[in-house]
Amino acid sequence: MRRDRWLTSAACRGLPTSMFFPERWQNASAHETAKKICDTCRVKGECLELALREIRSEEDRWGVFGGLTPHERWMERRRREREANG
Ligand code: SF4
Questions:
Q1: Could you count the other beta carbons within 10 Å of the beta carbon of residue 36?
Q2: Phi and psi at residue 24, in whole multiples of 5°?
Q3: DSSP assignment of the chain, as one string?
Q4: What band does 1 get if pLDDT is binned at 50, 70 and 90?
Q5: Are the C-beta atoms of residues 63 and 21 closer than 8 Å to each other?
Q6: How far is it, in rounded angstroms, from Cα 80 to Cα 43?
Q7: d(CA 73, CA 57)
Q8: Whose CA is nearest to atom 8 of ligand 1?
Q9: Can you give the pTM of this predicted structure?
Q10: φ, ψ (nearest 5 deg) of residue 65
Q11: Which residues line ligand 1 (CB under 6 A)?
Q12: How many A from CA of 23 to the centre of ligand 1?
């Protein structure tokens, strides 16, 4: 599925971007709000794979993608690396 096509099914479509990019001073509940929306999203898997594949580590300090925070994406990358390396 082309990226722009699946984005039309995104649960975050039309919502304020700021909901998915909480400011540093906001607490974890700001991330939880975004994550709850992601949990209802039909394209959560596509979104997460895109984030893991295409967002470079230096850019990956912000935002909730595919239901995961930056730290959770870092852990997922590490988990996959360990799995791939046996
Ligand atoms: S998983 Fe979350 S951030 Fe990704 S498209 Fe769906 S609602 Fe948006």
A1: 11
A2: -55, -35
A3: --HHHHHTT-TTTTS-GGGTS--TTS-HHHHHHHHHHHHT-TTHHHHHHHHHHHS-TTTTTS--BTTB-HHHHHHHHHHHHHHHT-
A4: very low
A5: yes
A6: 20
A7: 10
A8: 12
A9: 0.86
A10: -130, 135
A11: 10-12, 20, 37-38, 41, 43-44, 47, 65-67
A12: 18
Ligand 1 atom closest to Cα of residue 20: 3
For residue 7 the two structure tokens come to: 């984005």
| Count of beta carbons in the 10 Å neighbourhood of residue 62 | 14
Amino acid, single-letter form, for residue 5: R
For 37-61, write each residue's pLDDT tens digit: 999 999 999 999 999 998 776 677 7
Separation CA 81–CA 86 (nearest Å): 9
Distance CA 70, CA 7 (A): 20
The preferred substitution site among 12, 17, 18, 52 for testing ligand 1, maximizing ligand atoms within 8 Å of CB, is 12
